[in-house]
């Protein structure tokens, strides 16, 4: 995750939460459907997905599809059970 700008982190958090929603609903995250949901280009979404893959949140399945790393997601979300949050932040995955 080489970029550190606040805008990039905010958008990465938006993409992260959209990925978790899509993964929960469909079992896989498709680049095109994610781009539609977060109102970004597919190229931009792929950059964010690369960063989420580097954080071990997602794994690339091929053909523009990603799958959530459930053990990693469970580790992070179980730590957050007692914190009143409406969204999971990127920083939650960098500290575990």
Radius of gyration equals: 12 Å
Low-confidence stretches: none
Query: What is the helix fraction of residues, given as a range?
Result: 55-70%
**How many runs of DSSP E, i.e. beta strands?**
3
- Note the beta-strand portion: 5-15%
- SS field, number of helical segments: 5
Approximate shape? globular
Lateral strand order in the biggest sheet = 1-3-2
Q: Helix and strand succession?
A: HEHHEEHH
Mean pLDDT: 85
Query: CA-to-CA gap between the ends?
Result: 15 Å
Q: Structural class of the helix and strand makeup?
A: mainly alpha
- The protein's oligomeric status is single chain
Q: How would you sum up the major sheet?
A: 3 strands, antiparallel
Give an overview in words.
Helix 1 (6-26) packs across helix 3 and helix 2 crosses helix 3 (42-54). The chain has 96 residues and is mainly alpha-helical. It has five helices and three strands. It has helices at 6-26, 31-38, 42-54, 70-79, 90-94; strands spanning 29-30, 58-62, 65-68. The chain is globular and about 30 Å long. A three-stranded antiparallel sheet has the order 1-3-2.
């Amino acid at each position: 995750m080489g970029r550190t700008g606040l805008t990039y982190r905010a958008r990465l958090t938006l993409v992260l939460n959209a990925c978790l929603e899509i993964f929960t609903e469909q079992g896989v995250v498709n680049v095109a459907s994610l781009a539609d949901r977060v109102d970004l280009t597919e190229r931009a979404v792929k950059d964010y997905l690369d960063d989420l893959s580097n954080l071990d949140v997602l794994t690339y399945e091929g053909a523009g599809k990603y799958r959530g790393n459930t053990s990693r997601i469970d580790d992070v979300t179980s730590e957050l059970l007692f914190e009143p949050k409406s969204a999971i932040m990127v920083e939650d995955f960098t500290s575990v």
